[in-house]
Amino acid sequence: MPELPEPPADAAPHHAASVIIGRFQPFHVGHAAALRRALEVAPLCVVVLGSAYQARTPKNPFTWLERAEMIRLGLPEADRARVRFLPMRDYYDEARWIGAVRRGVAALLAAEQVDTAEGVALVGSMQDPTHAYLSGFHGWTLLRFSHGSRADAAALRDAYFGGAARDLDATLAALVDHAPAATLGFLRAWAALPEFAALADEWRMLKADRDAWRAAPYPPVFVTVDAVVRCAGHVLLVRRGRAPGRGLWAVPGGFIEQRETVYQSAVRELVEETQLALLELTLRRCLRAVAVFDHPDRSTRGRTITHAHFFDLGDLDLPEVHGGDDAAAAEWVPIERLGELEDRFLDDHFHMLDHFFGLTGP
User: Fold this and answer.
1) Entry pTM
2) Quick one: 138 and 249 in the same domain?
3) Read out DSSP for 273-307?
């Protein structure tokens, strides 16, 4: 294995490796400053790319491979060999996620034959509560870093999807102080892909929804229901027929009605979206569990709390199903296939299935 190139002599690294964590959607000047700091304190930097296996959305438009390339192109040639990328899925469970990051970093450093006796430095900002997770990496040295930039990834995405379709040149020119030249070049090329137009349409729809609630006295909190139905080694899924997430896989579900319990809403949505023809008494007898999924970032719509009802039909012959309501199709999918579909699920629906079926291990 080739040896890592030496860092600059004036960098005085004093850790075996450094780590920075982010979604980098997209990579901006604040991220670039943090990466430079991480490279100053160690000969090797591990860049942890969060939300690595999510479907494309206006919030997560770029795959982890695209983000890795965006970051790599923004580095001087001499530093590119000193950076490794670690894709990391969202677990919506902080303790589990931190454990997965630690194991991933340890495995990567072991593969690189890095002696961690000098310790691992975690470079990050504690400027808002969303970064509180950084204090959970006990045993790593937390190097608090303030990049002093006004760059914000959410604002960059809003500018990109809101303006690039009308005037790409003007939009990118307005971002020149907020993103490295390599990022702007990437965004220019990416705007020509068909994914851009689809996500820009979805961005406009979600913005209209948020604008409609802007006059409310309090930020809205939506309550929804979902139905996870297992039968003979399969799970019942639907394909979304409309935005958000048009064409993505999802478990049947929707918004709770005013005069329904969560159970009644779950059964109603299940029947409307899949045409599953089973007696209500049969469904009630097959109900095995109800779990609440309430992570603040679980849905692109905003703060959405869902109640997932798990029904196990045993080993019956698979009942006939058809897509209905806002589901373009309904299908029984083998549970063993769910892993390969991870990046084609709406919001956190893959993780909902992981909760009931243990798809991703510990």
Assistant:
1) 0.90
2) no
3) HH-----HHHHHHHEEEEEEE--TTS-TTSSEEEE
239 & 338 share domain: yes
Considering its fold, how many domains does the chain have in total? 2
pLDDT greater than 60 at residue 315: yes
Is-contact 332 235, C-beta < 8 A? yes
Per residue in 30-68, pLDDT (tens digit) is 999 999 999 999 999 999 999 999 999 999 999 999 999
What is the rounded distance in angstroms from the CA atom of residue 303 to the CA atom of residue 37?
Answer: 34
Whether 66 is covered by a domain: the verdict is yes
In which domain, by residue range, is 31 found? Answer: 12-150
Burial class of residue 165 in the structure, from the number of CB atoms within 10 Å of its CB (0-12 exposed, 13-18 middle, 19+ buried): middle
**Helix axes 194-212 and 153-163, enclosed angle (nearest 10):** 110
CATH at 46: 3.40.50.620
Nearest CA-CA partner of 47 in 63, 62, 32, 29:
32
Tokens of 36: 């430079």
Nearest to 108 by CA among 228, 17, 218: 17
- 304-312/222-231 β-pairing: parallel
Alpha carbon distance 51, 128 (integer Å):
19
- Alpha helices (runs of H) in 74-216, residue ranges in sequence order: 77-80, 94-111, 153-163, 168-174, 181-190, 194-212
Residue 223 backbone dihedrals phi, psi, to 5 degrees: -115, 125
Tokens of 183: 């990022």
